[in-house]
Specification:
Elements lengths: L1 H31 L5 E2 L9 E3 L9 E4 L2 E4 L15 E7 L2 E9 L4 E8 L14 E6 L35 E8 L2 E6 L2 E7 L3 H8 L15 E5 L6 E10 L2
Antiparallel strand pairs: 1-13, 2-5, 3-4, 4-13, 5-12, 6-9, 6-13, 7-8, 7-12, 9-10, 10-11
């Protein structure tokens, strides 16, 4: 009888330990996000973001139906009044980032990364950060320029295949920067793949519009930015996963 009681007690103890461990795993997964993904936009607030060179978000950036919207009512120049590029508070090194975007007719914008949040030295986010182009290819003049179309690594590498959806429809962009390798994915297709910071990379920069910008494309850590190019643009489902 004592033996049976001991077996029963050990069984109950094992169940309790197993249940507790499962609870810990579930709590851990929930706190970190599914498979390591962390949301950069909660769909309701600008927590975690600011306009470049400021501590707050410009009033031209609004939130509508769970999406970030640049309301480009003032078309005096490409930086909308009360806008400016939207920048994450945090900086990232090796990461995978996902963003859904749609652009207005004739619109231009971009998703930038490795941005140095240092306006005293760099006037623009694109003085340091690389850009995955967001564009209405058919309605904006940049659509006629090689390496300036939607999905391109702006002014450096053109898409191997164009998978952008018609203006006004949502696209899914993915940026994977992992220890010197870079992939840009648009709507599920790898459209750009390259190696960062080697001799070939430096040569590409030397033959681009960024050739006279010291430090451009050479930083290994930086912020994510959403570009204000003076046109209406929308972003949602912004997520990031840090890579080991």
């Amino acid at each position: 009888m004592q033996y049976k009681k001991l077996i029963t007690a050990l069984f109950i103890c094992a169940l309790f330990i197993s249940f507790s461990f499962t609870k810990i795993k579930i709590f851990s997964s929930t706190s970190q996000g599914q498979n390591g993904w962390v949301s950069l936009f909660d769909g309701k607030t600008f927590n975690g973001w600011h306009s470049y060179g400021k501590t707050t978000v410009g009033k031209a950036w609004t939130i509508e139906d769970g999406a970030i919207h640049l309301n480009a009512a003032d078309k005096k120049n490409y930086q909308t009044q009360g806008g400016g590029d939207l920048v994450t508070n945090n900086a990232y090194t090796n990461f995978e980032c996902r963003v859904d975007w749609k652009i207005s007719k004739g619109g231009n914008s971009g998703i930038l990364f490795f941005v140095q949040d240092y306006p005293a030295k760099y006037n623009e986010t694109w003085n340091t950060g690389l850009e995955m182009q967001v564009l209405d290819n058919d309605g904006h003049p940049d659509g006629k320029i090689h390496k300036h179309r939607a999905g391109d690594l702006y002014d450096l590498i053109a898409c191997s295949k164009e998978t952008v959806k018609p203006v006004g429809e949502w696209n899914t962009a993915e940026i994977i920067a992992n220890h010197g390798t870079l992939q840009l994915i648009l709507n599920g297709t790898v459209v750009v793949k390259t190696t960062l910071w080697d001799n070939n990379w430096q040569d590409m920069i030397a033959h681009s519009k960024f050739k006279n910008m010291p430090g451009f494309g050479m930083f290994k850590e930086g912020h994510i930015a959403l570009q204000d190019h003076g046109n209406d643009v929308w972003f949602k489902n912004i997520q990031i996963k840090t890579l080991p």
